[in-house]
């Protein structure tokens, strides 16, 4: 049986074998603690961490000391938002963010607002997912201390104009945090040229290991960040805990490889995305979720009119590993708040598919994906009533997809369902 075609790189990417090679010594003979200053094992680990810091800093064009290692973008976002809001409390308490941010930004902000620690302004986006810059500037009312804007949206691929947004923030004396999880390694980022106070990312979105990422914190802002995890003095006292040296080395190697290939890879991914859109846009009832030109090279989100909720995603499973505009909580599929914020109806959101490309995606993957979608669509459109099979209505469609794939795998292995 052919393995499913993987087009879900915005969720996670395959570890590059060169990254694994770089990590292996630090899972073997180099086992020292980077905070041990009294022997060669510790010194070696400390040197590896310092080299890694310099490599990541090169990709972002910042100073190594401006990077704090974290367990990934969720922690970086929480640290930046909670830490800066606590440090800036005496200056003001208004914080601004678009509605289309990732949950790891919106959840801590909503939590702080519910506790009365901030006044939260959530901004609408335009139908193409972009921020109206004038509305953004007007919303930075006196008392606003922090804005948090995602560079590349993880669901739609829409790219915000971070240069313009950072200039607006600078003019108003507001600090800007950027969730760049889907941008690092995909777009050219020059932090020396932008007024960004803090920036988050995760290594596993760029063919590095899971469980490691960093928070860039501009030197002048450091004094405003209150640490959220206390203990040892690692990371200049801003994030306590023994450093995972193998993951840090992997993160740095992933950044080095991304930087080496960035312009060519960006073009290659853009061509693949164009090819995918070219093929899908010929199909009946299709629409684009996102911006026609301000989009990242690796993400394409498309919807299909008048289909039963999640029917297309279910039909494509398990042949295509992609994601849809929904999350399952209990039996009811919840439409993506990002797609709803773009003005899509619940039905449109639940018939949307996100394709995301990576280093190992090929033209053949794209062509097969187009054919599979076309076939599935023909079947769904010709079915008069696409009611789910009896007895399955109470199930979340995603759970159903998983159960069927497991049953199929069990049958292939001859162990029965
Ligand atoms: C834009 C964005 N921010 C934050 C995160 C959270 O990253 P992690 O799960 O690595 O902490 C993700 C993950 O999908 C993301 O896409």
From TrEMBL:
Its cofactor is pyridoxal 5'-phosphate. It catalyses: (sulfur carrier)-H + L-cysteine = (sulfur carrier)-SH + L-alanine. Residues 5-367 form the Aminotransferase class V domain. It comes from the Bacteria. Keywords: Iron, Iron-sulfur, Metal-binding, Pyridoxal phosphate, Transferase. InterPro entries: Aminotrans_V_dom, Cysteine_dSase, PyrdxlP-dep_Trfase, PyrdxlP-dep_Trfase_major, PyrdxlP-dep_Trfase_small. Belongs to the class-V pyridoxal-phosphate-dependent aminotransferase family. NifS/IscS subfamily. This is Cysteine desulfurase IscS. It comes from Solimonas aquatica. The lineage of its organism: Bacteria, Pseudomonadati, Pseudomonadota, Gammaproteobacteria, Nevskiales.
């Amino acid at each position: 049986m052919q393995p499913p075609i993987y087009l879900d790189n915005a969720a996670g990417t395959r570890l590059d074998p060169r990254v694994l090679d770089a990590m292996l010594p630090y899972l073997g003979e180099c086992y020292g603690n980077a905070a041990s200053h009294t022997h060669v094992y510790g010194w070696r680990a400390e040197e590896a961490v310092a080299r890694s810091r310099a490599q990541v800093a090169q990709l972002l064009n910042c100073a190594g000391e401006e990077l704090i290692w974290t367990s990934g973008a969720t922690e970086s976002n929480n640290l930046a938002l909670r830490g800066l809001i606590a440090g800036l409390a005496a200056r003001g308490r208004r914080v601004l963010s678009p509605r289309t941010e990732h949950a790891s930004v919106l959840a801590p902000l909503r939590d702080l607002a519910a506790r009365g620690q901030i006044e939260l302004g959530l901004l609408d986006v335009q139908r193409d997912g972009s921020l109206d810059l004038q509305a953004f500037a007007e919303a930075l009312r006196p008392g606003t201390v922090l804005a948090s804007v995602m560079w590349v949206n993880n669901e739609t691929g829409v790219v915000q104009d971070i240069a313009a947004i950072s200039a607006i923030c600078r003019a108003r004396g507001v600090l800007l945090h950027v969730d760049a999880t889907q941008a690092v390694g995909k777009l050219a980022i020059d932090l020396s040229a932008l007024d960004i106070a803090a920036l988050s990312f995760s290594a596993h979105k760029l063919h590095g290991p899971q469980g490691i990422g960093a928070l860039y914190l501009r030197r002048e802002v450091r004094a405003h960040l209150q640490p959220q995890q206390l203990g040892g003095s690692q990371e200049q006292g801003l994030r306590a805990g023994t450093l995972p040296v193998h993951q840090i080395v992997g993160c740095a190697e992933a950044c080095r490889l991304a930087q080496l290939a960035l312009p060519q890879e960006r073009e290659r991914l853009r061509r693949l995305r164009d090819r995918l859109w070219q093929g899908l846009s010929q199909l009946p009832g299709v629409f684009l979720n996102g911006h026609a030109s301000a989009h990242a090279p690796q993400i394409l989100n498309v919807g299909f009119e008048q289909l039963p909720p999640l029917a297309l995603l279910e039909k494509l499973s398990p042949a295509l590993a992609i994601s849809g505009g929904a999350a399952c909580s209990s039996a009811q599929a919840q439409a993506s708040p990002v797609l709803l914020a773009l003005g899509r109806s619940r039905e449109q959101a639940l018939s949307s598919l996100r394709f995301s490309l990576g280093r190992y995606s090929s033209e053949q993957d794209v062509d097969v994906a187009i054919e599979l979608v076309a076939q599935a669509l023909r079947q769904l459109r010709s079915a008069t009533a696409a009611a789910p099979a009896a007895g399955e209505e109470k199930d979340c469609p995603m759970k159903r997809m998983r159960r069927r794939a497991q049953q199929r795998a069990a049958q292939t292995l001859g162990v029965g369902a």
